[in-house]
Amino acid sequence: MIIKDYDKFIIGGLGGEKKLRGTVEIKGAKNAALKAMAAAVLFDGLVTIDNVPETKDIHTMSEILKSLGTRVEWKESTNKGTKVLEIDSSKITSTDIDLELAKSMRASVVLTGPILARFGKVSFPAPGGCVIGERPIDLFLEGYQKMGAKINLDGDIYKIEAQNGLEGADIFFDIQSVGGTETLMMVAVLAKGTTILKNCATEPEISSVAEWLNSCGANISGIGTTTLLIKGTDGKPFSSNNSYKTIPDRIEAGSFLILGALCARELQITKCKPDHMEAVINLLKKSGVSIKVGQEEIIITNNSKDRVPFKAVNVRTHEYPGFPTDLQAPMAVFLTQALGESSVFETIFEGRFKYAEDLIGMGADIKILNSREIVVKGPSVLKQLPEGEDLYAHDIRAGFAVVLAALVSKGTSKINNINLIDRGYQRLEERLKLLGADVRRV
Ligand code: UD1
């Protein structure tokens, strides 16, 4: 299927009825696969990555890798509907990350670490990506400097060099950063000596990539904790070809969990990892959602006979294992349908409430207190926007949130900018249609 940047979704709302029903299979986590793709540069040979979702961000990363001289091939996976990626970095010819491609995806900055570690230099543009407020890269740059690299900013291109290779260092992150932790971990595995990373992020995507690197010859200890101790190979790239199996996408699973609570009579979410989703499962249960959790599946039921409204709950985003910032916007849509007043406090990113205006336009009772906090009063009857007005996907997750709002509402909604939704959710409309939703891509 050809996906165009100007595609739109047309969604027929369910008018508050919970009519969807069926099973949705969770794809591999794009935020893990992207990092394993970047880590492929640490290998002098072929790397295979299984269970890769076919999202736009993965294609962008694949284009960036190819522009460096890496061979990237897509193969069918045994996990239907996902792919195996084969990446061969033995013939890299460039260490300059493509300007235009990098600007469209913030995660491209993660690639700077492996390139620098393997070739002693890298150049890249000041990063782009989601429109969710300030997203600085100071932690990356400080880490590179501590490990002996020199940094020059030439216009808006960073040029980083470590002519004599990188040395292990003792690095304390001021803020727990997912990308910062992953990137410096990938630099340290090829550096000279030992690196200690403190106040690391502990997201499961980081741990799974770290464990895979260890299976290929890296020496990382403390995986899953906030302190990582890494012994480097003194510049020697890895050659082992242990395939990386992408872990299930906990954010996609959480998104469908919220969708199930709002719109489905019964929804079975399979091939997921509930252990990675405790914060969202607990909060939804507290609000009164009926959730059954199995080993690799979650079932949500909405029994129409004894229907009681969901209860308001307060949400405070937090680093893992707390409530993920990536589910903040979908959760706010859920809260428009819960009885009472809920506060939503965003601790990770500033300016992640752009979707709230769209919801207010649909009839939600939301007060935006400041760039970190909103108050949602429910339940509200959501309606399509007035004639001539469209909804917008402001970022990947806010995009999913307006899809949810459109499904819950009365009337028909048009959503623009869905290329942002395609960055993180594989063919969302096809998967929603299978559950009985009226969604068209035009
Ligand atoms: C990753 C995820 C994103 C998720 C986020 C937080 C990917 C591709 N993206 O993004 O979906 O929302 O984790 O769970 O994996 N910061 C600095 N300086 C830096 C780096 C980060 O101040 O050099 C700050 C950020 O502005 C933010 C906080 O650290 O306030 C956390 O961001 P970070 O964990 O780095 O997010 P990403 O890795 O970009």
Automatic annotation (TrEMBL):
<dbReference type="InterPro" id="IPR013792">
    <property type="entry name" value="RNA3'P_cycl/enolpyr_Trfase_a/b"/>
</dbReference>
<comment type="similarity">
    <text>Belongs to the EPSP synthase family. MurA subfamily.</text>
</comment>
<feature type="binding site">
    <location>
        <begin position="135"/>
        <end position="139"/>
    </location>
    <ligand>
        <name>UDP-N-acetyl-alpha-D-glucosamine</name>
    </ligand>
</feature>
<feature type="active site" description="Proton donor">
    <location>
        <position position="130"/>
    </location>
</feature>
<feature type="binding site">
    <location>
        <position position="326"/>
    </location>
    <ligand>
        <name>UDP-N-acetyl-alpha-D-glucosamine</name>
    </ligand>
</feature>
<dbReference type="GO" id="GO:0051301">
    <property type="term" value="P:cell division"/>
</dbReference>
<dbReference type="Pfam" id="PF00275">
    <property type="entry name" value="EPSP_synthase"/>
</dbReference>
<dbReference type="InterPro" id="IPR050068">
    <property type="entry name" value="MurA_subfamily"/>
</dbReference>
<dbReference type="GO" id="GO:0071555">
    <property type="term" value="P:cell wall organization"/>
</dbReference>
<keyword id="KW-0670">Pyruvate</keyword>
<feature type="binding site">
    <location>
        <position position="348"/>
    </location>
    <ligand>
        <name>UDP-N-acetyl-alpha-D-glucosamine</name>
    </ligand>
</feature>
<keyword id="KW-0963">Cytoplasm</keyword>
<dbReference type="InterPro" id="IPR036968">
    <property type="entry name" value="Enolpyruvate_Tfrase_sf"/>
</dbReference>
<dbReference type="GO" id="GO:0005737">
    <property type="term" value="C:cytoplasm"/>
</dbReference>
<dbReference type="GO" id="GO:0009252">
    <property type="term" value="P:peptidoglycan biosynthetic process"/>
</dbReference>
<dbReference type="InterPro" id="IPR005750">
    <property type="entry name" value="UDP_GlcNAc_COvinyl_MurA"/>
</dbReference>
<keyword id="KW-0808">Transferase</keyword>
<feature type="modified residue" description="2-(S-cysteinyl)pyruvic acid O-phosphothioketal">
    <location>
        <position position="130"/>
    </location>
</feature>
<dbReference type="GO" id="GO:0008360">
    <property type="term" value="P:regulation of cell shape"/>
</dbReference>
<keyword id="KW-0132">Cell division</keyword>
<dbReference type="GO" id="GO:0019277">
    <property type="term" value="P:UDP-N-acetylgalactosamine biosynthetic process"/>
</dbReference>
<comment type="function">
    <text>Cell wall formation. Adds enolpyruvyl to UDP-N-acetylglucosamine.</text>
</comment>
<dbReference type="InterPro" id="IPR001986">
    <property type="entry name" value="Enolpyruvate_Tfrase_dom"/>
</dbReference>
<dbReference type="GO" id="GO:0008760">
    <property type="term" value="F:UDP-N-acetylglucosamine 1-carboxyvinyltransferase activity"/>
</dbReference>
<keyword id="KW-0573">Peptidoglycan synthesis</keyword>
<protein>
    <recommendedName>
        <fullName>UDP-N-acetylglucosamine 1-carboxyvinyltransferase</fullName>
        <ecNumber>2.5.1.7</ecNumber>
    </recommendedName>
</protein>
<keyword id="KW-0131">Cell cycle</keyword>
<comment type="pathway">
    <text>Cell wall biogenesis; peptidoglycan biosynthesis.</text>
</comment>
<feature type="binding site">
    <location>
        <begin position="30"/>
        <end position="31"/>
    </location>
    <ligand>
        <name>phosphoenolpyruvate</name>
    </ligand>
</feature>
<feature type="binding site">
    <location>
        <position position="106"/>
    </location>
    <ligand>
        <name>UDP-N-acetyl-alpha-D-glucosamine</name>
    </ligand>
</feature>
<keyword id="KW-0133">Cell shape</keyword>
<feature type="domain" description="Enolpyruvate transferase">
    <location>
        <begin position="16"/>
        <end position="432"/>
    </location>
</feature>
<keyword id="KW-0961">Cell wall biogenesis/degradation</keyword>
